[in-house]
Amino acid sequence: MPSAVQIESATKVYGSTKALDNVSLHIDPGQMVALLGPSGCGKTSLLRAIAGLNPLDRGAIRIGESDVTMVPARLRPIGMVFQHYALFPNMTVAENISFPLTVNKQRRAQRAQRVGELLELIGMTALADRYPNQLSGGQQQRVALARALAPEPDVLLLDEPLAALDAAIRNDLRDEIRRIQHRVGTTAVFVTHDQSEAMAVADRVAVMDRGRILEVAAPPEIYERPTSRFAATFIGSRNALELPVDADRVVRWGTAFSVVAPDAANGKALAVFRPEDVRLTAHQGVAGTVDVVVFLGATSRVYVTVEGEAGDHTVHVDLPSRAAANFVPGQRVGVVVAPEKVRVFAS
Amino acid sequence: MTRMSRWALLGLWSVFLVLPVLATLLYSLATVWRGRAFPDGYTLAWWVQAFSEPRVVSALMRSVWLAVLTVVVVAAVVLPALYWGHIRNGRIRTVMQLCALLPFALPFVVLAYGIKRLAGASELTQPWESSPVLVVLGHVALSFPFFLWPVDGAMSAAGVRQLSEAAETSGATPLATLFRVVIPNIRTGILTGAILTFATSFGEYSIARVITGSSFETLPVWQVSALQDTRGNPNGVAVMAIFTFLLMFIVSVLIARTGKGQPLRLLPGIGNTR
Questions:
Q1: pLDDT digit string (tens) for A145-156?
Q2: Per-residue confidence (pLDDT) for residue B116, from 0 to 100
Q3: pTM of this structure
Q4: For chain B, which residues make up each domain, given as ranges?
Q5: What is the C-alpha separation between B244 and A164, in angstroms, rounded?
Q6: A297-320 pLDDT, tens per residue?
Q7: Which of A212, A263, B75, B190 is the most exposed place for a label (fewest CB within 10 A)?
Q8: What's the rounded Cα separation, in Å, for the pair A338 and A12?
Q9: B31 touching A, CB under 8 A?
Q10: Which residues of A touch B267 (CB under 8 A)?
Q11: How many helices (H) and strands (E) does chain A have?
Q12: What is the rounded distance in angstroms from the CA atom of residue A247 to the CA atom of residue B154?
């Protein structure tokens, strides 16, 4: 299957910083890819390069069959949703959605029909004649989504579309964007710095740092088996322990676990594991003391400090709240982690 | 401050603002006005006389054309530059803001002599030395800050950069973006800037007087000479002053009213979520 979007060796330099450093990415038709990373990692630069708003210094971008590297934004088959909505304040909801069709000189009847479909899709038929300043943030972003989808673009580009919204609306709109993208079947690129948002919305997540894509994988895979140190520490609230590498190239945390060190590791390695993969026992594993138990609803998070020769390590452990009720601060416990759940990276 | 004293202060302030206009209005309607609070009698003769005097009417027309031309040139220069400064190169805005301070650092007369000397310095420009074209140039230099400031503010408030990008990714050409998206959303700023520029040029005396002498008599130039001339017509000057005032006042009110009935233009996404 040919890729819907193909980015080859994209490079963009601002002054002395590389916003994009030789980035390549292929996106299959109908997929939603999340570009995930901290601010300044290049995710927005990559999105704007696909949109044609920031031309690349080097590299190429193909959308479908055609090379669009040198094509101006207005001629690319894209629709874009911005963080701050960017609706046209002088136009009503219907006029905003109709704008891409109007400038493409579509017939009035055709336009009206398409606007009607989109208003229904976003559930705002009743608000067609409102102006943007009469709408809530969530409603405005829905209109922006409809406007981006109006010309039936090959690629939908979303630049942190939920970042300006209240937490309560954010999850609803996130799921709605996902639902609409599925229904319409368009290929989409979704930029976010929020890893749970990326996981929830995307078919594949591309983790970015310092202008490069570190890995691209489906959400469960990136969550279970991150292959880069950055992804392992950036995604999920993981435990990360710096531990010595033995002479026989084994990384050992007392009796809690021992795993083979990666080849690149010299002297020290970073062992990363998820809070739900830690087991608290009565006597097995390394001995530690419960610091505090934080109730989070269905689960609770138990913080345990383990005294070691190389200094103390505090780990957090996620347990079903009923199980966590057995632990109280000050209690002595044993900590065990299954070795297959531990990822080790060169330190 | 008590309620009473606030009203008293406001009253004093209004008297300070309104009294000169009122006095001028009365003077333009007075038959004779000798050392009393109000004129001895009222007449429309001065108004009729002023508007039937060819010299006054042509001065008025010259001033109007001068001001309209100034507004057009200022808009044509400032609008695109400012727009580019907002969407691509922010340095343009800094340079323009700095240039906007220059007319206030130099007395207008100095500016006028500078322009005249400069034009007289080369063979090529000498024929233009006392031409009205130079007056327009002078007025453009003088009045462009009054266009720059409101339009720059309106562009910032509307977030023209984001709006332009949204239009661009929607497939709009640069012209469609400008006329359908940018200008409608900064219209109040443009109108405010236009009326301020118009008023500055319309009422300007020094540059017109210095550059053209009396060969291109604008309304302010006529007004000054009419006051200096012992056989002049001071009531006619008052007529034109009131006429100018009313003209500006009505246009300002009309502009202020165009903003109403339209949605408030806040920065998209900020302050208008409910």
A1: 999 999 999 999
A2: 83
A3: 0.81
A4: 64-232
A5: 49
A6: 899 999 999 987 767 889 999 999
A7: A263
A8: 43
A9: no
A10: 84
A11: 9, 20
A12: 69
